[in-house]
Amino acid sequence: MIISELHLSNFRNYNHLDLTFHPNLNIFVGKNAQGKTNIAESIYFLALTRSHRTHTDRELIGWEQKEMSVSGTIIKKNTTVPLEITLTPKGRIAKVNHLKENRLADYVGHLNVIMFAPEDLAIIKGAPSVRRRFVDMEIGQIRPVYLYDLMRYNKTLKERNSYLKFDASKIDPNFLDVLDDQLVEYGEKVMNHRKQFISSLTEISADLHHHLSHGQEKLRIVYAQNVKTDFAVELKQARQKDQFRAQTSVGPHRDDLQFFINDINVSNFGSQGQQRTTALSVKLAEIELIHQETGDYPVLLLDDVMSELDNQRQLDLLALVIGKTQTFITTTTLDHLQHLPDKMTIFEVTSGMIQTVSSEQSDTSVDTE
Question: Residues annotated as binding site?
Fold first, then answer.
């Protein structure tokens, strides 16, 4: 799977931008705050209809503009698929092959991307909500039905929490039973999806981590499931406490992941190097997992992370991905990048202006204003 071209309109600091990409490796070089990360973000947005950097859509729209759009051409299994996302004051409009998709869940999955950025260390050492979001986004790419089940679960959860805020004398136990049944129905589906995903991720990432640590470390990922035995029973047992607190205390909305290196919790006690290698192992495992699930390798976005890795980890990373995935690297300098392939395109980014400075392809074109 590759993205052959990208078109931006009023996205961040780009009023208008047209880019054609190399199918192997694309490197965006420039000083900080020039717009390099915005390119990676736009590709991520085209795939998942949301940013990896902000929850506020307004931040994605150019200054004094009312809407923006990101579009591109995807090539997979010799098939060309145009994709487009427009962000308007009324919401998102997603199109596949120029036809509008009524549900975003039907759009997500046409372009699979893996993003590795400095903030991804939060997957290892951040809050449980960060890890749940990571799991949700990655499962959603390979199993769109998961997004539907998760949406229904979250909708029912919100409704239950709102109902729990009523005065106790006004709460109908029978209606609460109905909400509990719905919560259990969709919650069990969500948990089953997560179990399968985490099991596969654990197996693949353990092998990769063993390689990256040169046989010195054994990585284990644990699905810290909030529901211990029976969701329906535990929800019933927690009802009185939930009514007192006016919130649902049991369910997959409280799940977490735990990472262990040689049986030591790396989130709490691992070194920064171990945490970084663990995050890298997990991200690389996602690549293989998506390939197993879809038959295509995803697009890899490495946003300002190469300088964070020592020379050996850089070599290991490039050896594992180059030739498999179409890879995008953003960086402030090429000095620390070693053993790059001959087949690639290098773009120079200055104040939102992009220029091709090196390319194997003579017909690579850039149109920006």
Answer: 30-37
Task: Note whether 264 and 148 are same-domain residues.
Answer: yes
Q: Are residues 95 and 133 in the same domain?
A: no
Number of domains in the chain: 2
DSSP labels, 237-286:
HTHHHHHHHTS--SSGGG-EEEEEETTEEHHHH--HHHHHHHHHHHHHHH
Binding-site residues from annotation for ATP: 30-37
| Strands 2-11, 68-76: pairing kind | antiparallel
Q: What is the pLDDT along the chain (369 residues), one digit of tens a residue?
A: 999 999 999 999 999 999 999 999 999 999 988 999 999 999 999 999 988 888 888 899 988 889 999 999 999 888 999 999 999 988 899 999 999 998 888 899 899 999 988 888 889 999 999 999 999 999 998 888 999 999 999 999 999 999 999 988 889 999 999 999 999 999 999 999 999 999 999 999 999 999 888 899 999 999 999 999 999 999 999 999 999 999 999 999 999 999 999 999 999 999 888 898 899 899 999 999 999 988 999 999 999 887 777 777 777 788 888 888 999 999 988 877 767 777 889 999 998 899 998 766 534 333 433
Structure tokens at 85: 């996302």
Q: Amino acid letter at 368? A: T
Picking from 242, 263, 294, the residue at the C-terminal end of a domain is 294
Last residue within a domain, chosen from 294, 316, 336:
294
Read off the CATH number of the domain in which 45 is found.
3.40.50.300
